[in-house]
Amino acid sequence: MAALKYWLWLTTRKGLGNQGAAMVLEQFGSPERAFFADPGEYDLMPRGVAAALRDRSMDAVERILGDCDRLGIRIMTRQDADYPTRLHQLDDAPYVLYLKGNLPDFDEEAVIGVVGTRSATEYGMSVAGRLGLELARGGAVVVSGTAAGIDTCAVRGVLKGGGNPVCVLGGGIDVPYPKGNRYLYEDVAAAGLLLSEYPPGTENHGPHFPIRNRIISGLSLGVVVVEAGEFGSGAVITANHALDQGRDVFAVPGNVDAKESRGCNRLIQQGAKPVLGAEDILCEYRSRYPVKLTRNVPLDEAETAQRLQTAERVTSPGQPEAVAKPGPQPTKPCRSGQGLTDDELALLHALGDKSLQADELVEQTQIPARRVLSALTMLQIAGWLEERPGKRFAAIVQLTEE
Prior knowledge:
402 residues; alpha/beta; Rossmann fold; Arc Repressor Mutant, subunit A; nine-stranded mixed β-sheet; three-stranded antiparallel β-sheet; globular
């Protein structure tokens, strides 16, 4: 714990950043030695670095430790044995990571990054959701963000496919982005992993996202871009990080006249592998991960559509949040509740033919909120529920009485 405090002190010095921290470690060998160094030794460093080191206050460190303990967030440093090797090999790998959820063994998994624009089209959102679902069912671990548009659709697809998504954030784990994705954060923390190099309480500032993108590509074997503009796109920045890091790059082709597809089409022109479905990605790694990447029986179109029919929230900069309307609802299929937990059965009975918010379910069932959220996540993954506009949940499968 003592060593951890000094890592937190170093990585929270104002204006220091990852590059400045690297200079400090090269000079002093460890954060602790830098903290206890004679102030005169700081004069050997650039002026900005020296000024940052002279602030030896531990107030922020104590706050971070308290917040992480309260929120159930784990802190990992580059010295920890389970720090992902793929990430550690990067010259600019983060020195500290904040984690909430289930940490996969990244180095033993076929990890695929899925990225794209916030201003996604219906085509892009549909492809992202299907890719997430198919990659998860095929055994891959999917890494993405939580921004509206492609990221959100891909992550929800992974959850619908029974996978364990990893979301790399541009702010603190306790600061959902966008705000409407609070339930998505909870779902990912329950089934997969939330990961950030920013401590709790950090707002999601624009400059954080291009920096964050190197982690998405760094953890991955390959990155697939679903939709992206040609210039200044965060998804294209991620693809460039992937190329610099020696990762594979895939892209979903699109209409040559659509601005949302220009970045993808340009990447394909420059050598990225075009992707028409998850198998185009999985086949590249199946020989290296024959046990992990299984060949599942493909879902038919109707079942795929049913799993992915959850309404998506799409937010564009400067525009109000809009909700994509779900298509016509089919007659609910019936299914036995065998294998469901008591909490899951109670929620299905409470829902019936209604759509209710999580808070309403807590009130009706008197089940603690944490258990309700966990059960809702598992029911969505298993295909019993869908989330509808207004953060309301509805059963899409009817529970048979045995």
